[in-house]
Amino acid sequence: RMVAAVLAGLSLLSLLTCGYLAWGSRRGAAGDAPGNPLGEDPAAGAPRSQPHIIFILADDQGFRDVGYHGSEIRTPTLDKLAAEGVKLENYYVQPMCTPSRSQLITGKYQIHTGLQHSIIRPTQPNCLPLDNVTLPQKLKEVGYSTHMVGKWHLGFYRRECMPTQRGFDSFFGSLLGSGDYYTHFKCDSPGICGYDLYENDNAAWDHDNGIYSTQMYTQKVQQILASHNPRKPIFLYIAYQAVHSPLQAPGRYFEHYRSINNINRRRYAAMLACLDEAINNVTLALRKYGYYENSIIIYSSDNGGQPMAGGSNWPLRGSKGTYWEGGIRAVGFVHSPLLKNKGSVCKELVHITDWFPTLITLAEGQIDEDIQLDGYDVWETISEGRRSPRVDILHNIDPIYTKAKNGSWAAGYGIWNTAIQSAIRVNHWKLLTGNPGYSDWVPPQAFSNAGANRWHNERVSWSAGKTVWLFNITADPYERVDLSARHPDVVKQLLRRLSQFNKTAVPVRYPPKDPRSNPKLNGGVWGPWFKEDEKKKKSDKSKGANSKKKSKSKKKAS
């Protein structure tokens, strides 16, 4: 009886100390976790070393579009998680979907995977090169269960390109870059339309109940957490579709934003409110099922916001798809009980490629010597406030992007052709060449009137022929003062660094579209269309035809 009483006392103490804290009373369609009034931790007392890793990637969230950056859009969950974790305030991603996702999953710059240009289009026979080892593959080597929910956008023309072939035990989500949030249909061009919701390697018709994707993905995450043993490490990659266009959201999320006149901004706000609630419910599920105390939650946007689609990067310059700060500087934070400096701000340089080595090291994995990574292990930088091992970032070199008309080798001091679109950061300095993209600042007032209105933008005009810009980003994060004429020596140094990086670049992979990709030829579904057997048959036929020709020519010769 005495032993039983002691055990009962310990059990009560465990409940009091390990029970989850209330994360607000908001519960709803964004994937509610069933209630757990006792806050029980199913894994309490279990031996733990390898942390559970939950990586949440938002889509097209603008730098300003989070409460703690001054947004009018309410994001109480993100604000709370960030405030209790470490805010990354010198954190960079790539300006578009595919590039950021490829660098996250490989730890390599685009120039080292061949994905330097644009994104992977639905009709292109292209995907993340198969010779690249991925983050989930490395985590599986050390015992992790790996699951992906959400948007893939790293190519699917061959079955070998699918998420389940690239290291994930399970996949539930979309293969393309965008699509309808309810029907999950996507048209790439007139007449080229198809269904895009998958479970593992097959179309998920049975799981499609017309549920808004943010809510549907959250429910799937809850199911995965409920069925997995929290004593075993899990890697959960949640790549939400929100807040990418098309701008759609359930009606009740518009409640607080009816005063926003700009319809795109209002819809965007509702989408972000739904996303914030979904992340609240993911956090509740982590606590309920016993993962939270040994978890690392990483939150990141994949690129800057698109003002014409409701996003705001103010006070940064530029937007999604550009190499100005508004396209590449992202909302990001880490939340974890394992952090040493909780409630802090990290202003050290961090890039999306850094997650690959950082997470593998935390998982007690090994990074092969022959894998030439561009990322760094930045856990001590984030957790303990130490200096970042990173001193530079190659934002990109795109040799096939539209060349700047007035760019030349002469403008690049004979070191670099400034017609080429490129951008690099070294310590405090940032250099851009070629055509960096849409470069206006879009203040909050731009969203005050209905419809897209560029008259509220701070329009930029500079002397004709300019193809080089230099900024001290630490002193001038908004890129207001171009210093290229004042510091030609710094320009030359950065151009040399660009040239050095370019020598290590692999050829660009950007093939023309393949008519066999049409979903009409694949049961109305976007999916793998390239079959290795067909290629072998064709090559065998051609070999046979060639051998016949050779035998005929031999007969003629004889």
Q: What is the gist of this entry?
A:
The protein is an alpha/beta fold and about 550 residues long.
Overview of this protein structure:
Residues 546-558 have a biased composition (Basic residues). Keywords: Calcium, Glycoprotein, Hydrolase, Metal-binding, Signal. Residues 530-543 have a biased composition (Basic and acidic residues). It holds the Pfam family Sulfatase. This is ARSJ Arylsulfatase. With 558 residues, the protein is α/β, with parallel strands linked by helices. The protein folds into two domains: 52-390, Alkaline Phosphatase, subunit A, CATH 3.40.720; 397-444 and 458-504, 2-Layer Sandwich (Arylsulfatase, C-terminal domain). Helices cover 25% and strands 15% of the residues. It contains eleven helices and 18 strands. It has helices spanning 2-18, 76-83, 97-106, 135-141, 213-227, 263-288, 325-328, 355-362, 379-384, 488-502, 532-557, and strands at 52-58, 86-88, 91-92, 145-151, 170-174, 185-189, 192-195, 198-199, 202-203, 234-239, 295-301, 332-335, 344-346, 350-351, 392-398, 421-426, 429-433, 468-472. It has a ten-stranded mixed beta sheet with strand order 9-8-5-4-10-1-11-12-2-13, with helices on both faces. A hairpin with a 2-residue loop joins strand 8 (198-199) and strand 9. Helix 5 (213-227) runs parallel beside helix 6. The radius of gyration is 25 Å and the shape is globular. The model is unreliable at 1-29, 33-47, 450-455 and 547-558 (pLDDT under 50).
